[in-house]
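chain below, 178 aa
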Amino acid sequence: MAKKILIAVAVLLLVLLAVVATRPDHYTVKRNASIAAPPDKVYALLVDFHVWSQWSPWEKLDPAMKKTWSGTTSGVGAIYEWSGNDQVGKGRMTIVEATPAKQVKIKLEFLEPWQSTSDTRFDLVAQGNQTTVDWVMEGRADNLGLKAMGLLMDMDKMVGSDFEKGLVDLKALAEKQP
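prediction:
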Protein backbone atom coordinates (compact mmCIF):
# COMPACT_ATOMS: atom_id res chain seq x y z
CA MET A 1 0.00 0.00 0.00
CA ALA A 2 2.80 2.42 0.92
CA LYS A 3 4.52 1.61 -2.39
CA LYS A 4 1.37 2.56 -4.35
CA ILE A 5 1.09 5.85 -2.44
CA LEU A 6 4.74 6.69 -3.15
CA ILE A 7 4.27 5.90 -6.84
CA ALA A 8 1.13 8.08 -6.96
CA VAL A 9 2.96 10.96 -5.26
CA ALA A 10 5.90 10.58 -7.63
CA VAL A 11 3.58 10.61 -10.67
CA LEU A 12 1.79 13.71 -9.34
CA LEU A 13 5.13 15.47 -8.82
CA LEU A 14 6.23 14.59 -12.35
CA VAL A 15 2.96 15.91 -13.77
CA LEU A 16 3.35 19.11 -11.74
CA LEU A 17 6.94 19.53 -12.96
CA ALA A 18 5.80 18.97 -16.55
CA VAL A 19 3.06 21.61 -16.19
CA VAL A 20 5.48 24.09 -14.60
CA ALA A 21 8.11 23.46 -17.30
CA THR A 22 5.61 24.27 -20.07
CA ARG A 23 4.65 27.64 -18.57
CA PRO A 24 5.66 30.68 -20.64
CA ASP A 25 9.11 32.06 -19.88
CA HIS A 26 8.08 35.65 -20.60
CA TYR A 27 5.37 37.97 -19.31
CA THR A 28 4.01 41.31 -20.43
CA VAL A 29 1.75 43.69 -18.56
CA LYS A 30 0.39 46.66 -20.51
CA ARG A 31 -2.09 49.40 -19.74
CA ASN A 32 -2.72 52.74 -21.40
CA ALA A 33 -4.49 56.03 -20.84
CA SER A 34 -5.31 59.13 -22.80
CA ILE A 35 -4.21 62.29 -21.01
CA ALA A 36 -5.32 65.81 -21.93
CA ALA A 37 -1.82 67.25 -21.71
CA PRO A 38 1.10 67.56 -24.13
CA PRO A 39 3.72 64.79 -24.11
CA ASP A 40 6.42 67.02 -22.60
CA LYS A 41 4.30 67.57 -19.44
CA VAL A 42 3.63 63.86 -19.06
CA TYR A 43 7.29 63.05 -19.75
CA ALA A 44 8.41 65.41 -16.96
CA LEU A 45 6.28 63.43 -14.46
CA LEU A 46 7.84 60.14 -15.56
CA VAL A 47 11.51 61.00 -15.93
CA ASP A 48 11.93 62.36 -12.38
CA PHE A 49 11.52 59.72 -9.64
CA HIS A 50 11.10 62.49 -7.04
CA VAL A 51 7.69 63.24 -8.61
CA TRP A 52 6.48 59.64 -8.56
CA SER A 53 5.17 60.00 -5.01
CA GLN A 54 2.41 62.19 -6.47
CA TRP A 55 1.02 59.50 -8.76
CA SER A 56 2.61 56.08 -8.16
CA PRO A 57 0.08 53.52 -6.87
CA TRP A 58 2.67 51.85 -4.62
CA GLU A 59 3.37 55.02 -2.65
CA LYS A 60 -0.16 54.76 -1.21
CA LEU A 61 0.31 51.12 -0.19
CA ASP A 62 3.04 52.04 2.28
CA PRO A 63 3.30 55.75 3.06
CA ALA A 64 6.08 54.94 5.58
CA MET A 65 8.32 53.09 3.13
CA LYS A 66 11.98 54.07 3.08
CA LYS A 67 13.00 55.74 -0.20
CA THR A 68 16.38 56.79 -1.52
CA TRP A 69 17.35 58.54 -4.73
CA SER A 70 20.79 58.45 -6.29
CA GLY A 71 22.51 58.87 -9.61
CA THR A 72 21.33 61.78 -11.71
CA THR A 73 18.45 63.98 -10.54
CA SER A 74 16.29 62.85 -13.46
CA GLY A 75 16.64 61.09 -16.78
CA VAL A 76 19.19 58.44 -17.69
CA GLY A 77 21.08 57.29 -14.62
CA ALA A 78 18.43 58.31 -12.07
CA ILE A 79 17.97 55.60 -9.44
CA TYR A 80 15.09 55.12 -7.00
CA GLU A 81 15.30 52.49 -4.26
CA TRP A 82 12.58 51.54 -1.81
CA SER A 83 12.05 49.24 1.14
CA GLY A 84 8.62 48.84 2.64
CA ASN A 85 5.89 46.58 3.92
CA ASP A 86 4.82 43.26 2.39
CA GLN A 87 2.73 45.02 -0.25
CA VAL A 88 5.64 46.95 -1.77
CA GLY A 89 8.65 44.85 -0.78
CA LYS A 90 12.13 46.05 -1.63
CA GLY A 91 13.53 47.06 -4.98
CA ARG A 92 15.26 49.48 -7.28
CA MET A 93 14.43 51.32 -10.51
CA THR A 94 17.01 52.82 -12.85
CA ILE A 95 16.19 54.97 -15.85
CA VAL A 96 18.21 53.43 -18.68
CA GLU A 97 16.87 55.41 -21.62
CA ALA A 98 14.90 58.63 -21.95
CA THR A 99 13.73 60.26 -25.17
CA PRO A 100 12.09 63.62 -24.35
CA ALA A 101 8.32 63.65 -24.83
CA LYS A 102 8.46 60.15 -26.39
CA GLN A 103 9.66 57.38 -24.08
CA VAL A 104 11.16 56.47 -20.70
CA LYS A 105 12.74 53.03 -20.19
CA ILE A 106 13.39 51.69 -16.71
CA LYS A 107 15.21 48.66 -15.35
CA LEU A 108 12.98 47.42 -12.52
CA GLU A 109 14.57 45.12 -9.96
CA PHE A 110 12.48 43.42 -7.29
CA LEU A 111 14.73 42.32 -4.43
CA GLU A 112 12.19 41.18 -1.80
CA PRO A 113 9.96 39.22 -1.24
CA TRP A 114 11.32 37.58 -4.43
CA GLN A 115 14.02 38.51 -6.88
CA SER A 116 13.29 39.35 -10.49
CA THR A 117 14.19 41.95 -13.06
CA SER A 118 11.78 43.52 -15.52
CA ASP A 119 12.02 46.06 -18.29
CA THR A 120 9.45 48.82 -17.91
CA ARG A 121 8.72 51.58 -20.32
CA PHE A 122 6.36 54.45 -20.87
CA ASP A 123 5.58 55.22 -24.50
CA LEU A 124 4.08 58.66 -25.21
CA VAL A 125 2.23 59.45 -28.41
CA ALA A 126 0.71 62.87 -29.15
CA GLN A 127 -2.79 62.68 -30.63
CA GLY A 128 -4.23 66.14 -31.13
CA ASN A 129 -4.47 67.78 -27.70
CA GLN A 130 -4.09 64.39 -25.98
CA THR A 131 -1.16 62.16 -25.11
CA THR A 132 -1.61 58.43 -25.18
CA VAL A 133 0.54 56.78 -22.53
CA ASP A 134 1.36 53.07 -22.73
CA TRP A 135 2.81 51.63 -19.51
CA VAL A 136 4.49 48.32 -20.31
CA MET A 137 6.38 45.86 -18.13
CA GLU A 138 8.12 42.83 -19.60
CA GLY A 139 10.11 40.21 -17.84
CA ARG A 140 11.34 36.66 -17.88
CA ALA A 141 10.17 33.75 -15.79
CA ASP A 142 12.94 31.50 -17.01
CA ASN A 143 13.46 29.24 -14.02
CA LEU A 144 11.19 26.63 -12.47
CA GLY A 145 10.63 28.67 -9.30
CA LEU A 146 9.31 31.72 -11.19
CA LYS A 147 7.29 29.51 -13.54
CA ALA A 148 5.74 27.70 -10.56
CA MET A 149 4.91 31.06 -8.99
CA GLY A 150 3.14 31.89 -12.27
CA LEU A 151 0.70 29.06 -11.59
CA LEU A 152 -0.42 30.85 -8.45
CA MET A 153 -0.09 34.50 -9.52
CA ASP A 154 -0.83 36.05 -12.88
CA MET A 155 1.45 39.08 -13.36
CA ASP A 156 -1.14 40.86 -15.49
CA LYS A 157 -3.80 40.50 -12.81
CA MET A 158 -1.38 41.22 -10.00
CA VAL A 159 0.20 44.37 -11.46
CA GLY A 160 -2.30 45.51 -14.10
CA SER A 161 -4.73 47.03 -11.61
CA ASP A 162 -1.84 48.99 -10.05
CA PHE A 163 -0.90 50.30 -13.50
CA GLU A 164 -4.52 51.39 -14.01
CA LYS A 165 -4.59 53.25 -10.66
CA GLY A 166 -1.24 54.88 -11.41
CA LEU A 167 -2.38 56.04 -14.83
CA VAL A 168 -5.55 57.56 -13.34
CA ASP A 169 -3.42 59.55 -10.87
CA LEU A 170 -0.84 60.44 -13.55
CA LYS A 171 -3.67 61.72 -15.74
CA ALA A 172 -5.14 63.83 -12.94
CA LEU A 173 -1.74 65.29 -12.08
CA ALA A 174 -0.77 66.07 -15.68
CA GLU A 175 -4.15 67.62 -16.49
CA LYS A 176 -4.19 69.93 -13.47
CA GLN A 177 -0.72 71.37 -14.12
CA PRO A 178 -0.66 74.73 -15.93
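The mean pLDDT is 86. The CA atoms of residues 61 and 87 lie 7 Å apart.
thats it, cya
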